[in-house]
Specification:
This protein is an alpha+beta fold. It is built from six helices and twelve strands.
Length: 218
């Protein structure tokens, strides 16, 4: 998953770094870029770990790093904490530094109290998809749910996310054999077009066919 860094509205830090505002990225990628719910953030207590995205202000190009911050407190001016990681390549920032941030800067919570990981597991499960759909040069035309592939022992052990069995073809690809297929998270496809979301749990053997802007079982 690639972050498109959007600058913190408060502007650059005097230390040569700034916090990334992830809201536009999350809006553009709702099925692959997950952030804690408001309820989860409101449940935080002092000592909890939250993840923020830091970006170097180096005009020659700097790094973007996700790091943990020990949340301490909040008031009308914002939230406060202490950096709990050592930056890899961001000048002017060190472990133990005090960090001031907003609630929208939080992109992860170490020990969730309310949110579950069900959506992440569901939308990061894999599918086969015509690469033109991901490139934006073709629309989805047909989806077939085949028997999920079985992996060799090594792959099952090291791959967290399962195979959905979905094969997703472009609208103009009638033969299916000419498609250049990629194997990736189904959430990436949903970010492009989620009009088939309600049918995502259709059983093996199901076929979805586009009709206008909707999909129906074929």
């Amino acid at each position: 998953m690639t972050d498109k860094a959007s600058k913190n509205l408060e502007g650059p830090s005097r230390l040569g770094w700034e916090l990334v505002d992830p809201r536009s990225t999350q809006e553009e990628n709702p099925y692959t870029f997950f952030v804690p719910s408001e309820a989860e953030k409101n449940a935080l207590v002092g000592g909890d770990l939250v993840k923020l995205i830091f970006e170097s202000c180096d005009p020659n190009g700097g790094s973007v790093e996700r790091m943990w911050v020990i949340y301490r407190d909040r008031d009308e001016n914002g939230w406060y904490g202490q950096l709990d990681n050592e930056p890899f390549d961001i000048e002017g920032l060190s472990r133990g530094d005090e960090i001031h941030f907003k609630d929208f800067n939080i992109v992860g919570v170490w020990d969730t109290k309310i949110d579950s990981m069900d959506d992440e597991d569901r939308y990061f499960a894999r599918c086969h998809v015509d690469q033109r759909i991901i490139d934006g040069s073709a629309r989805i035309g047909r989806l077939e749910r085949r028997k999920p592939k079985w992996f060799w022992w090594w792959q099952r052990k090291h791959q967290r996310f399962s195979d959905t069995g979905w094969h997703i073809f472009a609208e103009d690809n009638s033969t299916h054999k000419s498609a250049k297929m990629s194997y990736l998270a189904i959430g990436v496809v949903l970010n492009k077009d989620d009009s088939y979301l309600r049918l995502l749990d259709a059983p093996v053997g199901a076929c979805l066919v586009r009709n206008g802007n909707e999909f129906h079982l074929g």
